[in-house]
Specification:
It contains nine helices and no strands. Helix 4 packs antiparallel against helix 8. By secondary structure, the chain is mainly alpha-helical. The model has no long low-confidence stretch (mean pLDDT 84). The protein has one domain.
Length: 192
């Protein structure tokens, strides 16, 4: 059940707005001003902190290596937590920390809807076209090349869109984007 929200008007002095903008520009996911204020309030109230997120990430990564437990966690899910990509599966674990993922829930929804639209129309895209679509060269988007590669790799590990689709994505791509096609080896998990 989605928590009920209520519209709330807040007036802040220019110095406070400047501080909020400065804080949000340091964040990897470049939240909107409203989202930044929500995150700062959550942190201040202690509802979810980066430390809590990192503790959950650590627990999931450790569990992914424990015999009899690791089978319950898919490689895609473990990869998502390793690379701080909001996962589509086991959302109950991720939702309390939605603002702490480097690739946020909103980013993943937008990317998956865009790729799904292409796939349903039996169209494909190249990685360079994806970079152009998200205007990475402008630097005004929360996406960067690494986040886009990791998000695509997560979706491929989930089995979305099929191998032919992903082969086309990496056909014209920077060398590092070919990692989208790589398997995920849990022995490569690093803690830090």
């Amino acid at each position: 059940m989605t928590p009920k929200t209520e519209r709330f008007e807040l007036r802040l002095d220019l110095n406070t707005i400047t501080e909020v903008d400065h804080w949000r520009k340091k964040q990897n996911n470049l939240p909107s001003r409203s989202e930044a204020i929500r995150c700062l309030i959550e942190t201040g109230l202690g509802t979810s902190s980066r430390q809590d997120f990192l503790a959950m990430k650590f627990q999931i990564l450790v569990a992914s290596l424990v015999p009899y437990v690791k089978e319950s966690l898919s490689d895609a899910h473990v990869f998502a937590w390793q690379h701080e990509i909001y996962p589509f599966e086991n959302k109950d674990w991720a939702e309390p920390f939605a603002t702490h993922f480097l690739v946020t829930k909103q980013m993943m929804v937008e990317l998956s809807e865009y790729l799904d639209g292409l796939w349903l129309k039996k169209k494909t895209t190249t990685f360079y076209e994806l970079e152009d679509y998200y205007e990475l060269s402008r630097g005004t988007t929360p996406w960067d090349r690494v986040k886009l590669i990791d998000a695509c790799r997560y979706m491929r590990l989930q089995g979305l869109f099929g191998d032919d689709f992903w082969d086309e994505v990496v056909r014209e791509s920077p060398r590092e984007a070919t990692s989208i096609l790589s398997i995920f080896n849990r022995e490569d998990i690093h803690f830090g």
